[in-house]
Amino acid sequence: MIFFRQMVFKFTSLLFCLLLFSCATKTRKHSSEEYYFSGKNEWGNMAKDFKYPAELEKRIEDFLGIPYVWGGNDNSGLDCSAFVKQVYEIYGLDLPRTSVLQSKLGIEIPREALLPGDLVFFGEADKDSVTHVGIYMGGNKFANATNSEGVKYSHLDESFFFSKYLFAKRLNF
Asked: Which helix (H) or strand (E) holds 59?
């Protein structure tokens, strides 16, 4: 009887471990042509090799204070995706015009792996409802075009952005 209990315990322990492991793994296929990194320790390698784009902060400063205008696309008024699109022109990237299309680019990264220059996306709980985008700057700070104050720096831990955060993407530039 003791042997039978030991076998049942081992079997259920093994089954539990297998189920736990299968839930924790995610299979993703990445093309090395689409992304600028490769290797098994991709997050560590990206952080180690990342060069802070100093031009990025200077470029964003040029936009601070420009008022928010839905569909706006120039210095008289911008919306969030136009702001991101225009900032990234400094790197020769021609991003799509909407936050939904911008969210389809790059590689999704975990929040704890954010680096300056990553795009942060906000919306409702399901990822198909992207409604806002900003540019992460480090230290939980990101630049974005807000309805109330135009282009400014915000923080990911502000209650509104904390509750609407969906995911982040790293672009190849």
From this structure: helix 54-61
